[in-house]
Structure formats: C-alpha cells, structure tokens
Write the structure tokens for this entry.
Amino acid sequence: MATYTNVSYAVKNISTGGSTVATISSGTLGVASLVVSNTSTSPITCDVYITRSSVNYYIVKGATVAVGGSNECIQGNRIVLQLSDILVVVASAASSADAWVSGISVV
C-alpha cells in the first residue's frame, strides 16, 4: 500500500550553476508549488528544470523575478517527478534567490 506524505524543500542562496532542490531517491513526488524569490536589490532571472536520464526539461527559462518579488513557477497542476529525477533551480546572479517547493511524496 502506498504512503502519501506532505513534503517541502527549501534552498537558500541559489547558485548561477544550478542548485538541486530535490532528488527523487524512492517513489514519486507530486510537486504542487515551486516559488522562487528574489532576495537581492536588482531584478534577476531564473530557470527551473527537471533532469531525467541526463536530459534537462525546462519548466521555465529566463523568467524575470522583480526586486523583492517572487515567481511561482509551478502552480495549479502537479508535476510528478519519478525515481532518479532531479529538480534544479538556477539564478542569474549568485546568492540572489531562494526557492520553496511543496508537494506530496508517494512511496
């Protein structure tokens, strides 16, 4: 029988090379929301993608996040991550953004 658990992941100071938000090591993850917040004093852009079998699949690419603002990159519908998928966020300036993910883990 499957076990459903509400989960959340947070990443502080997202890097320009990409910060891993979640790696699926068992079961699946239904991502309900992913918010990227600008913590700097200048506008930034962000990319969000899923790496599956060494291929990057973009959710957003080059999305602008205003000073003091946020971008809800995933909302409304769930994106289901499978075993070995990696959820990555990239910021255009180092240490200029934080990310928060919430969803349901199914094991």
Summary: Residues 17 and 90 are 6 Å apart (CA to CA).
